[in-house]
Amino acid sequence: MQWIGCAVLTAVLVAFFMWEIPVVSIRMGGYYNFPLYSLPHWLDAISNTLSTMAQLLMAFSKWEQWIYWVCAAVPQIWMWGGAAGFGMDYNLTMLFSIYLILNIRGFFLWYSRNAQGQKSAIDIEVTENK
Description:
Blueprint: H1 2-29, H2 38-59, H3 65-83, H4 90-115, H5 121-128
Helix pairs in contact: 1-2, 2-3, 3-4
């Protein structure tokens, strides 16, 4: 049931960011960079949504956050790597590539600790405060 809620909220957030990104861009700067190109807009909305969902899941200490973090880094790498058709930014491509590596490492660390039955820092703190 939790996955259904995550999927619905993800779809709602993609729709929200598809509307919000150009509106805020126009109101803040007077123009929107990609009115004729839909791919950068979709990639930006999807990566914003996945990052927001990962933050929410992280706040509740859910392991699924790592899946969202990995999936959020991929469209950013694609977008800033030049595949979206507006040039390559080497610094941001490298930054999100490092994030992707760290996210994959975090996923495997979280998974291995969970498989070994180790408690997370949050579980330990909650237990000690009781």
